[in-house]
Write a structure and sequence with these properties.
The protein has ten helices and six strands. It has about 260 residues and is mainly α. The protein has a single domain, classed as Arp2/3 complex 21 kDa subunit ARPC3 (Orthogonal Bundle), CATH 1.10.1760. The strands form three sheets. The chain has a two-stranded antiparallel sheet with strand order 1-4. Strands 2-3 form a two-stranded antiparallel ribbon. Strands 5-6 form a two-stranded antiparallel ribbon. The longest helix has about 35 residues. The two termini are about 25 Å apart.
Length: about 260
């Protein structure tokens, strides 16, 4: 198959960005960063459901989440529900495959000369560092993949429910609205599976609710801030396709 048409090239580009950022999010997500301190503010120290000193400590995976959000809604807009569902399922399989390959890599016997390395003046055990960074627990992997799939499926349904009401108008409403609802579910599912059901953590429901709500608040704000960028991407694609072809694709996508 060759990608000679504008539609096929567009789908290839959008899908590549979608898959790449979803997998990248899983691997950089092991780093937890302080949102407040990163942008130069003091930690908020919120108290929710009896859980003290909460602040916006987020997984670095949220860096690529806005790109996935935009790709999901753009693919939904131009190619329809079936394409998003297929791509989401494929991506979940590829994430699982990526973790499987990493697991095999962790089992390889390290070379002696590689084992101890000097990094920034410090002696580092590279095997320990490699396993710590890439060796995410099975509960976290299952929770992450499950939350991703559920979130994506909810997103496409809500997107088209809103589109049936608004027609081709109010892109911001169906795109941002579907994202806010899907991410509400995603934020709690991943924590529930990875930390509440996981016997190694045994988090209380108060902890799950508090951490999930803080995480969702961050995603809520970012989703609103990304809305203008969604329109920019939409206009670029319309220019690439041409108004007639873009309108035709949107019409066909709306049929399911």
């Amino acid at each position: 198959m060759t990608f000679k048409t504008k539609e096929s090239r567009l789908l290839l580009i959008l899908s590549a960005f979608f898959v790449a950022n979803a997998i990248l999010s899983e691997f950089i997500g092991v780093k937890i960063f302080s949102v407040e301190e990163t942008i130069g503010f003091k930690k908020l120290g919120i108290n929710l459901f009896g859980v003290p000193n909460l602040s916006f400590n987020m997984s670095a995976g949220v860096l690529t989440w806005p790109i996935i959000f935009i790709m999901t809604d753009i693919i939904n807009e131009y190619f329809g529900v079936k394409q998003v569902r297929f791509l989401s399922t494929l991506t979940a399989i590829l994430i699982g495959f990526a973790f499987f390959v990493v697991w095999i890599a962790m089992k390889l016997r390290p070379s002696d000369f590689w084992l101890m390395q000097k990094v920034n003046g410090q002696q580092i055990n590279m095997l320990v560092a490699f396993d710590a960074i890439f060796g995410q627990g099975m509960w976290i992997i299952i929770g992450s993949i499950t939350a991703f799939l559920i979130g994506q499926m909810v997103d496409v349904v809500v997107f088209h429910k809103i589109k049936k009401i608004t027609g081709e108008n109010a892109l911001w409403l169906r795109a941002t609205g579907s994202t806010l609802i899907s991410q509400l579910i995603d934020s709690f599912v991943v924590i529930f599976i990875a930390f509440y059901l996981n016997p190694n953590y045994n988090w209380s429901w108060q902890m799950v609710a508090a951490i999930g709500l803080v995480g969702y608040t961050y995603k809520f704000i970012v989703a609103l801030l990304m809305t203008p960028i969604l329109y920019v991407v939409h206009n670029i694609i319309d220019s690439f396709l041409g108004k007639d072809l873009a309108h035709k694709m949107i019409k066909m996508a709306a049929r399911g």
